[in-house]
Here is the input.
Amino acid sequence: MPNRILISGPVSWNSIVYLDHLPEPRPHMQFALEDFETVGGTSAGKALHLAGLGRRVSCLTAAGDDAASIRLRAVLESAGIELQCVPVPGASERHLNLMTRAGERVSLYLSTPAFVEPDVAQFRALAEGAEALVMDLSETSRALLPEAVASGIPIWTDLHDYDGRSDFHEPFVQAASHLFMNADGMPDPLPFMRDRVNAGATVVVCTLGAEGAMALDADGLHRVDAVPAEIRDTNGAGDAFFAGFLHATLSGSDTDGALATAASQAVVALESKHLHPCVENALG
Here is the structure.
């Protein structure tokens, strides 16, 4: 059995509502084109795609005890993900995502679990023997970063739409050997990418939506085009891309090969109603 990948970060139960256009900031009425409930959260997306690629995955996450939390855990465990839950009272994280077919999104946080101090000994035991630590943005992951760094295991972090200034992101920026981001938060991400590689990061990857992605490592700049897809839902495409890159890297691919695998894996999410096709079967 392959070594595990340990993911620390948020999972959620989401309500997805499709509209013909996002609401304007005024009192009015709109009719939904479609609505459904599903698994969400950046750590869930990464875990589902890595498990789908045959990787053994553990996910350390905060989880409540309400009906939606029970359903959420059942879907993730049915995909073969080894859940390690930090118990929180009441509801797990829940979102209401207002979407358009063009991929526009407004995410409303309906509930966020109260912060519970993580068990460092538990994290240390889970990390032992792992091939990679994925430290997704969360208060729990932030508290565990010193222990993650001390483990000596490569740390992979997704900064999402980082603007280059956020104090919350800074410990993740400093700790990670493999950094991912999108271009939404910076007019030109290349100076930041160069700074991180010069500071010792193995690779920094920036996704560019329909324009593909670019990566910078010690050998220079690499680019990949987006793979054509019949888009069903854009939620989780970045997490699928991340998972494809991580899987390919652990399989021995160089940066160009990992980018190609990542771009292809993003299509799996884009063409699925859910974060990953396996969720459809789990939800019945």
